[in-house]
């Protein structure tokens, strides 16, 4: 099981403005901020998560990744739909509208958006 994941972004403020509302329908919020000074000049970072556990990190100070795919688990189809709508409203670009993806497995319901750096961000529900 993965404990956490992180990658660099080109504009931390723009990425915060995207991820904060986009992840909210999934119950994921900004939990931690680490400044450039706190890292000794190794970039600033934002930690998103739930239950006081940051598990999704974005930050500066490294080469920007542009081919990342991150999928967040959703509690139901409505949360997938809400994620997609919130992500588009926050400036994300559609990369696959909410819907069934039977080519992955029966009951796979997902939606995809591209973040400000072009990373493929997904919300998925594995229900029926």
Automatic annotation (TrEMBL):
<dbReference type="InterPro" id="IPR029068">
    <property type="entry name" value="Glyas_Bleomycin-R_OHBP_Dase"/>
</dbReference>
<dbReference type="Pfam" id="PF00903">
    <property type="entry name" value="Glyoxalase"/>
</dbReference>
<dbReference type="InterPro" id="IPR037523">
    <property type="entry name" value="VOC_core"/>
</dbReference>
<dbReference type="InterPro" id="IPR004360">
    <property type="entry name" value="Glyas_Fos-R_dOase_dom"/>
</dbReference>
<feature type="domain" description="VOC">
    <location>
        <begin position="1"/>
        <end position="126"/>
    </location>
</feature>
<protein>
    <submittedName>
        <fullName>VOC family protein</fullName>
    </submittedName>
</protein>
